[in-house]
Specification:
The complex is a heterodimer. Chain A is mainly α. Chain A is built from 17 helices and six strands. In chain A, the strands form three sheets. In chain A, strands 1-2 form a two-stranded antiparallel ribbon. In chain A, strands 3-4 form a two-stranded antiparallel ribbon. A two-stranded antiparallel sheet of chain A has the order 5-6. In chain A, a hairpin with a 2-residue loop joins strand 3 and strand 4. By secondary structure, chain B is an alpha+beta fold. The termini of chain B are far apart. Chains A and B meet through helix 1, helix 14 and helix 15 of A and strand 1, strand 2 and helix 5 of B.
């Protein structure tokens, strides 16, 4: 009787004590992935062409990413279903991916040297590139633990942006598997999907967060921790892109292996060889982005050194134009003398045909001379305006050197005004083409991920890519390729004016008002526009919301 | 075997009680208190802990005793008793009395910490925004912009308070944005304006004994004053340059703060002299205040002296309060070398709230803080990659 009753008691004791014991023995170590865990095969649709529609109404499918992607073919885009892949190919692809990229518990990236790549790149020094990109298996293993702990719940096990909390946040967490990122500062020599972000870009995004989205700042992490996470994101991105591109070429070629990218290098193309080639290619692309010098801005136009330099350049140009204008009258006189000689010759000529030809020549010479004279006036005007520009720059320089705070402020406002003119220029549609009404009246469009996004509302002081002027420069000069923002391609000196204006836009109370017009119109070209009236429309503004 | 449960409960509860006794000595207790009003909060905590501890012990001893005494016995028949009226009156009245006592005892602390009208004139202002899962701090470019003193005209104070409310809700172009980092200086009256962008959050500074829930749509003021610093001097860390006058300062920012600091010091000197002259005319309230100050100073010195007694490295520190304080703060710094005074979200409504952490940096002086602010501003306005 006693023994029969004691056994449930023992069980009860174990049941009560085991959570306590588990806590004591388990401690607070960050647990790693199980060794048996594999990256899941891709099942969601692959967007191969985004719909061109630019005026989608407010989508009701926010938060339902897969539904909105499923609707893409109906909207005029194209999407491929990975389920079309034959089961054999799918199994082969999964095995190849595991060979090259490992498992969540043991991640790695293998790259090789390929002699003759399809795209004409030389894939050399793969080993060094892996080390320089810090995607060696040691760093990746540590990054994988950090990722599991801090990133996975939104960005997902395979970096697909579909983690457990992913559906609940808007904008959607980034899906790394396309190999494209928004906030990129890589060299402008790289274009399209080859323009991968630098490691420093991902580092900034993790450290500072993305204001206005659900990506928080992880700035209390150590540098190493962040670097490890960056490495692991690279791993997931390369793996995802390799998987995606292989699936796309297999489905497009209906399972025909000779349609794979690797077939052009190797006649006995297999899925594994293709995976290895693509992995090496993407490693090379990431490495290029990281090793090429970043997109460097032109020197800021309003430092004393730059003002002096610019003034000198303007004066030089003005001098050239002036000497051209000066030589014009003498040249015109020479031409006229020639014309006179021709007229005389025509009068003396016996042959009527020759006489008309000579007269015509004389007339054209006279025309040329007249054009030269008229042009000289224009050139002189141009030279004068250049000289005026130089004079303004010099006076600004003098004021700066005297430590005149008002002058510095007036200069800043002048720059802002020039930026405003560029921004609202209807001919070039540089900014207002998309950022209608400074971004307050914009509609949704599709980005490369198939998500609905819209151009930023620039009256709102949140900057997803960062709020430093250099961050804004990177967004304007390099564009945000995946979301359809094109690079601005303006003259180098215009960038800082645009940035000055964009950074002042959210703060109408800080823009020059009408009562200050006189105060700030210190230089001749700073014709002040009352920006407050142009920008601030009462009732239209979103209102003070504390930074969101 | 029938008494197994009483033994089990007895052991577990004895272990719990033992843990409670051991915890303060093992360093599992409250984090070091660095708030000017921290003692008030801690005192209340201990009072309540005393009450609850006493009744915990009482009820648990009774429980274990009853489990032991009234366990199943072969052949013993249970007897049933009816409730005792006076016993019930007694155990209702006693807790009611205790609750009443606590509700009166906490009024002073609550008034000091939470009443807007009792908050001291600020030395600096920061706006804090909670967001899943981070704290975004926003500093005005001019630290002294929303300051006033006890002597400021009340209408002026009202204007400043309205201005700061507006600022707290609408960011301005020259604000300095720093996520997850709260920088203040030792001895500054810091005014914080708390907002949230999404859900409920709870801004919690364990070392400052300050906790405040953030409600969507509301801007909630709070204040604190840190009495110790945990941050190495700025010029050593970033500049290797000890003379504040030589710090790079394109904007005259730290210079301005320095000037203001010296002005405040001069004003304080004058104030002291004036007070010395008409000691006789000093109002009763002032005397009261002075007495209270003296009392806190005495308590301070006493606690610092006891600290000195426990630490051999402090044996040579003199009896002057300032010496004692300096030595004590050095020790605190050494203990928290990793800048680990944290800002936490105490609204534990999801796993990620545990990671919604920031850090509190208390600079030793106002100049250090100003230099940090200038540094942050330079970073934010950088035009170079």
């Amino acid at each position: 009787m006693i023994s029969a009753r004691s056994s449930p008691r023992g069980l009860r004791l174990v049941a009560l004590a085991s959570p306590l014991l588990a806590c004591l023995l388990g401690g607070c170590q960050k647990a790693h992935y199980s060794e048996n865990l594999r990256y899941p095969a891709r099942t969601d649709l692959i967007v191969t062409k985004r719909p061109e529609k630019q005026d989608v109404d407010f989508p009701h499918s926010l938060g339902k990413l897969d539904q909105s992607i499923a609707a893409i073919p109906a909207e005029g885009g194209k999407a491929l279903d990975p389920k079309e892949l034959s089961p054999g190919d799918r199994k082969e692809l999964q095995e190849a991916l595991e060979k090259v990229f490992g498992t969540p518990a043991d991640p790695k990236v293998e790259a090789h040297d390929f002699k003759d790549d399809v795209e004409g790149d030389e894939l050399k020094g793969a080993g060094q590139k892996i080390d320089a990109l810090r995607i060696d298996s040691g760093t990746l293993a540590r990054g994988s633990i950090e990722y599991r702990w801090h990133c996975l719940h939104c960005h997902g096990l395979a970096g697909d942006g579909r983690g457990p909390t992913g559906p609940w946040v808007h904008p959607h967490p980034r899906d790394y598997r396309q190999g494209t990122f928004k906030f990129v500062s890589s060299s402008l020599e790289l274009a399209g999907s080859r323009r991968k972000p630098r490691r420093a870009d991902l580092h900034r995004t993790i450290e500072k967060g993305i204001e206005g989205t659900s990506m928080p700042a992880f700035n209390h992490f150590t540098r190493d921790q962040i670097e490890q996470i960056v490495s692991y994101v690279l791993h997931l991105s390369i793996r995802g892109q390799v998987e995606q591109d292989t699936i796309v070429s297999l489905i497009a070629g209906k399972g025909d292996k000779s349609k794979l990218a690797v077939a052009q290098v190797d006649k006995n193309a297999t899925i594994e060889k293709n995976v290895r080639l693509l992995a090496s290619r993407f490693v090379a692309q990431w490495s290029d982005a990281d090793t090429l010098p970043p997109n460097t801005p032109p020197p800021y136009s309003y430092t004393p050194e730059q003002l002096e330099k610019d003034a000198g350049e303007l004066e030089g140009k003005a001098g050239d134009l002036a000497s051209k204008a000066e030589s014009a009258p003498t040249k015109a006189k020479e031409l006229e003398a020639e014309a006179d000689a021709k007229t005389k010759a025509a009068a003396a000529a016996k042959d009527a045909k020759a006489a008309t030809a000579l007269r015509a020549e004389a007339a054209s010479k006279r025309k040329e001379a007249a054009a030269l004279r008229a042009g000289a006036a224009g050139t002189e005007k141009q030279a004068a305006s250049l000289r005026e520009g130089a004079r303004i720059k010099k006076s600004q320089l003098a004021a700066l050197k005297q430590g005149d705070g008002e002058a510095a402020r007036a200069m800043k406002l002048g720059s802002m005004v020039r930026g405003y003119r560029l921004f609202v220029d209807k001919k070039s549609q540089l900014c207002v083409g998309c950022h209608k009404d400074y971004g307050r009246q914009v509609q949704f469009r599709y980005d490369t991920w198939g998500t609905l996004v819209r151009p930023a509302n620039l009256t709102n002081p949140t900057y997803r890519g960062g709020r430093r002027p250099i961050d804004v420069y990177w967004r304007i000069s390099g564009g945000i390729d995946p979301s359809g923002m094109a690079p601005a391609n303006v003259a180098p000196q215009d960038y800082w004016d645009l940035i000055e204006f964009v950074q002042a836009l959210p703060y109408p109370q800080m823009l020059p008002g009408a009562h200050e017009t006189e105060r700030y119109a210190r230089f001749k070209d700073e014709k002040i526009i009352n920006l407050r009236d142009k920008i601030y429309v009462p009732g239209k503004q979103d209102g003070p919301t504390g930074g969101h | 075997m029938q008494k197994w449960w009483s033994v089990f409960f007895g052991v577990v509860l004895a272990a719990t009680f033992g843990l409670w006794i051991v915890a303060p000595f093992a360093g599992w207790w409250l984090p070091p208190n660095v708030a000017s009003y921290g003692d008030q909060v801690d005192d209340l905590f201990y009072v309540i802990l005393g009450f609850t501890g006493f009744f915990f012990l009482l009820t648990e001893v009774l429980l274990v005793y009853c489990l032991w005494r009234f366990a199943y016995r072969e052949g013993h028949k249970s007897t049933y008793t009816h409730g005792n009226h006076w016993l019930e009156v007694f155990w209702t009245a006693v807790p009611a009395g205790i609750l009443l006592f606590i509700s009166f005892a906490q009024i002073k602390a609550w008034e000091n910490i939470k009443y807007q009208s009792r908050m001291p004139p600020p030395d600096m202002t920061v706006q804090v925004t909670g967001r899943q899962w981070e704290w975004r701090m926003r500093y005005p470019y001019d630290t002294a912009r929303f300051n006033y003193t006890n002597d400021t005209d009340p209408t002026q104070v009202h204007i400043v308070q309205r201005a700061v409310r507006y600022w707290a809700e609408a960011p301005e172009a020259d604000d300095i944005h720093v996520p997850n980092e709260l920088h203040v200086w030792q001895g500054a009256n810091v005014k914080l304006y708390l907002r949230t962008l999404d859900v409920l959050h709870s801004f919690y500074l364990p070392n400052l004994r300050l906790k405040q829930d953030a409600l969507p749509g509301k801007t909630i003021p709070m204040w604190f004053k840190a009495t110790a610093s945990n941050t190495v001097r700025y010029e050593n860390e970033w500049l290797g340059n000890k003379d504040p006058q030589k710090w790079p300062d394109e904007l005259g920012l730290s210079k301005k703060l320095l000037e203001e600091a010296s002005k405040t010091e001069q004003a304080a000197e004058k104030d002291k002299e004036a007070k010395a002259k008409d000691k006789v005319a000093a109002s009763r309230e002032e005397a009261k205040k002075a007495r209270a100050e003296a009392a806190t100073l005495r308590a301070d010195v006493a606690s610092l002296k006891s600290e000195r007694a426990t630490r051999p490295e402090l044996a040579n520190v003199g009896d002057e309060p300032d010496d004692l304080r300096a030595a004590a703060s050095k020790i605190r710094y050494a203990a928290h070398r990793d800048h680990s005074w944290e800002i936490a979200c105490a609204e534990l409504c999801g796993a990620r709230h545990a990671y919604m952490k920031g850090r509190l940096y208390v600079h030793p002086t106002r100049e250090d803080y100003a230099a940090w602010l200038a540094h942050a501003y330079r970073q934010q306005t950088s035009r170079q990659p």
